[in-house]
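pls read this stuff:
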Amino acid sequence: MLAIYPGSFDPITLGHLDVIERGCRLFEEVIVAVLRNPNKSPLFTVAERMDQIRRATAHLSNVEVDSFDGLTVTYATMRRANVLLRGLRVLSDFEMELQMAHTNKTLSEEIETVFLATSNEHSFLSSSLVKEIARFGGPIDHLVPPPVALDIYRCYAKTLPVPVPNMDLPQPLEPPKTEFHRETVGDPE
């Protein structure tokens, strides 16, 4: 049975990867389908996101990465998929996803939506949260696959955190030693 896991994946997180890995155990093939959404301003291009997903799922033999625009059910029908795979983090996700599943059912009765509850350690995680943490210089290596973390750090190069083990990140420049810096950091004169 073929399942499609649609989303923007901007960027792919360890929560997404968890759903993909678990979906791969349930279905013969999982297509991770990157939605081209003209209403969003993504951090990464569709091609970059597809590459990130391919690198993150290289250890899974039954994953394909593709992109689409338009309705998910139209894409699923074109690919002859039987299942849409969706991850649920919190109750608000369920309300939105259930509404979408019912709507999709009115468009195509042949396609079922299967929900996977996210693992506890990823229940808080979203792509938006990852980007916000990175934008303000926080570490995100524990939230996304290592190659993706490097891509994100490069996007926000002015706010690189302490280097992640096993990653060759450029080192941030030392801030100038000013009176303000010495006072706030506690640097002896």
About this structure: The chain is about 40% helix and 15% strand.
